[in-house]
Design brief:
Elements lengths: L2 H6 L4 E6 L5 H15 L5 E4 L8 H15 L3 E6 L5 H13 L4 E5 L18 H11 L3 E6 L10 H14 L3 E6 L3 H13 L6 E5 L5 H11 L5 H9 L4 H21 L4 E5 L5 H14 L1
Parallel strand pairs: 1-2, 1-8, 2-3, 3-4, 4-5, 5-6, 6-7, 7-8
Helix pairs in contact: 5-6, 9-10, 10-11
Bound molecules: flavin-adenine dinucleotide.
Length: about 290
């Protein structure tokens, strides 16, 4: 199944994001989570990859195995900034071999890569999208940022660049996580005004710890509403109450997004199933 085709059906789409495990124990946890989440019939699961270009075949293998063994539709994330065209071509060959038909085409973060070659083949995701589109082999998605990408001088400038990515062949977009829906709706208005008409799937992440929140917000430069911050502080020493609060916050976000027309939801799971299951159970029945 190509994600693009699935989006055309008009039914709300639900997906989960995983990262490739590094140890046997992590692999077991991922498979346990994926098995449990499969019962909720996600439209796809996506597998991240490293921006440094290390171990791209771990993502390929995970995407292939989750598809072959669990029957889950998979989207392989593919970052380009640390790869040559020849390497990208080889990764794609292997994805085809594994029967993976969907790619989320990304640049990758450049700040955490040591010794990035100045003569690299790719500087932006748009170039990767254009190359992949030319092959015709994959359904292509791209990333977008309701609160703007941290490197972009302004949201308007970022959206101009996003339009180039869509014009190059990105058929749908998945957002960076956000904790306040007003960012998504404002972004959507701007995106539409810029002539971008592909589906924009909101990415949500239930926060299960205060420390985790500051890591993510510092790295991704997303804002945190006062009531979320206050709740996480209040329940900092009570894991169960924190979990409940966090799931309720994300479920309320999800329900409003779906009710106001979002095409579906992409849940960042961090390879754990419990919060994702709770959120999806809260909203899926009502999604239509
Ligand atoms: P781009 O679309 O290339 O944009 C990057 C920046 O460049 C933006 O500021 C944009 O405005 C600007 N820009 C674009 N084109 C031009 C141009 N022609 N001239 C000047 N400026 C330009 N990272 C990983 O390492 N692995 C993953 O698996 C991964 N998965 C992700 C999944 C999602 C849904 C999201 C939202 C992000 C993910 N990321 C992942 C993070 C992503 O790689 C980083 O945010 C990265 O810094 C930007 O990637 P991009 O594909 O959005 O880049």
């Amino acid at each position: 199944m190509r994600v693009t085709e699935r989006l055309k059906s008009g039914k709300k789409l639900f997906s989960f994001e995983f990262f490739p495990p590094k140890t046997e124990e992590d692999a077991k946890r991922l498979f346990d989570s994926a098995r449990v989440l499969k019962a909720l019939e996600p439209d796809f699961v996506s597998i991240t990859n490293s921006s440094s270009g290390s171990a791209p075949y771990r993502t390929v293998a995970m995407a292939g195995v989750l598809k072959a063994e669990l029957g889950l539709e998979t989207v392989a994330h593919l970052t380009c900034v640390a790869h040559t065209r020849a390497e990208i071509s080889e990764i794609c060959r292997r994805l085809k071999e594994m029967n993976v038909k969907n790619i989320l085409a990304l640049r990758g973060d450049i700040h955490n890569i040591d010794g990035l070659s100045p003569r690299r083949d790719y500087s932006y995701a748009t170039q990767l999208v254009a190359d992949l589109k030319a092959t015709g082999d994959f359904s292509l998605g791209g990333a977008c940022y309701p609160e703007k990408h941290p490197d972009a001088p302004s949201l308007d400038e970022d959206i101009l660049r996003l339009k180039e990515k869509v014009d190059a062949g990105a058929e749908y977009l998945i957002t960076q996580l956000f904790f306040e829906n007003s960012h998504y709706f404002r972004f959507l208005d701007k995106v539409l005004a810029a002539g971008i008409s592909v589906p924009v799937i909101p990415g949500l992440m239930p926060v299960t710890g205060y420390k985790q929140l500051s890591n993510f917000t510092q790295m991704m430069k997303v804002s945190v509403p006062a009531e979320l911050r206050a709740g996480l502080e209040r329940w900092a020493d009570d894991k169960e109450s924190l979990f409940k609060f966090s799931v309720e916050h994300a479920s309320a976000q999800a329900a409003e997004l779906l009710a106001r027309g979002a095409p579906g939801l992409h849940l960042y799971t961090l390879n754990r199933s419990r919060a994702a299951i709770a959120i999806l159970k809260n909203v899926k029945g009502k999604a239509g």
